[in-house]
Specification:
34% of the residues lie in helices and 28% in strands. By secondary structure, the protein is of the alpha/beta class. The strands form two sheets. A six-stranded mixed sheet has the order 6-7-8-3-9-10, sandwiched between helices. It has a four-stranded antiparallel sheet with strand order 2-1-4-5, with helices on one face.
């Protein structure tokens, strides 16, 4: 089953077109690594899937249904997204706990207090990502690595079907990176999530993904198995 389908899309912001005539299909339950130089369009691709970018041409399908302004909020409820950057003013009184709870607002509603299920879930996830001691601290005062773990927790609070991860290993130390890798492997196996991960760390993604996509200048340069990708990286030969 096709979980995500991009049909000849061109995507951009205002007058700039970042992705040009790109088509792509992601099967339900696939774990896909997304590589390429800065400015290749990787983050824009994730935003297109999540309904956060302007689709200038073509169509985005989620579960066989065309993504549009009428259903994008419904689909965002099943998509967990960890952006590369998420900055707030250090003086802003937003607790880490509040940021994590944001992940379930699409299901519970913005003005509804978290119920028993949400409280159990935040306890489980915060222990898993070792942020339970940070929940009552202002989010703006956390370190880069602590913020990343908080944003991963926020995405998991949705109990998503699709997980979009943009450079989540930035600012994580080796020990925590290994832990997050193990967590991703475990939830992918147990929950059969469809995961797309953007990373510059080839060794890390090599241990996670069976399929690799390379982008340059808003286009797909390579899409295939991990072994073939690694050989092409070694020889720097691209079709």
């Amino acid at each position: 089953m096709k979980k995500i389908k991009l049909d000849n899309i061109s995507v951009g912001y205002l007058t700039e077109t970042v992705i040009k005539n790109l088509s792509l299909e992601i099967e339900d339950g696939e774990f896909v690594g997304l590589f390429g130089p800065n400015g290749a369009g990787k983050t824009t691709l994730l935003c297109a899937i999540n309904g956060l970018a302007m689709i200038k041409k073509g169509k985005v399908y989620i579960d066989g249904e065309i993504l549009n302004i009428f259903n994008e909020n419904r689909f965002r409820r099943i998509i967990g997204y960890v952006p590369q950057y998420f900055d707030v003013d250090p003086k802003l009184p937003v607790l880490t706990e509040d940021v994590v709870y944001m992940g379930c607002y699409g299901k519970t509603g913005l003005f509804k207090f978290p119920g028993k299920r949400e409280k159990e879930l935040i306890d489980e996830i915060s222990i898993l990502l070792e942020i339970e001691h940070l929940l009552k601290k202002p989010f703006g005062q956390l370190s880069g690595g602590e913020r990343k773990r908080t944003l991963i927790a926020r995405a998991l609070m949705k109990e998503p079907e699709i997980l979009l991860l943009d450079e989540i290993f930035a600012w994580l130390d080796i020990k925590m990176m290994e832990k997050v890798i193990a967590i991703l492997k475990d939830i992918h196996k147990k929950k059969h999530l469809t995961i797309l991960i953007v990373s510059h760390d080839i060794e890390t993604v090599k241990s996670l993904c069976s399929r690799i996509i390379w982008m340059e200048d808003g286009k797909l340069i390579f899409d295939g198995g991990k072994e073939v990708f690694l050989k092409k990286i070694e020889t720097e030969q691209w079709d």
